[in-house]
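Appendix B. Chain record.
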Amino acid sequence: MSQQTINIELPSDILLTLNESEKELKKRIKLSFAIQLYVQQKVTLGKAAQIAELSRFQFETLLSENKIPISSLELEDVLKDTETLK
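Structure tokens predicted for this chain:
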């Protein structure tokens, strides 16, 4: 998988303020970005997991722990699909 590097500017004391390493902050930003894109339905679950550098299962677990729906299907959709399959 090829990578794209994007530089963003943050206050110089951000690492001190958050008491995090640069590596931890990068991970937090990627994870937050992946979740936001998924919630906005800009990317699939698999692509969001890839952005967050997690397995799909790990990403689904994280979403579940944060009470973020893994599927956008409504009950009506499920019932309609069930009838279609009959």
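Further analysis of this model is presented in Appendix C.
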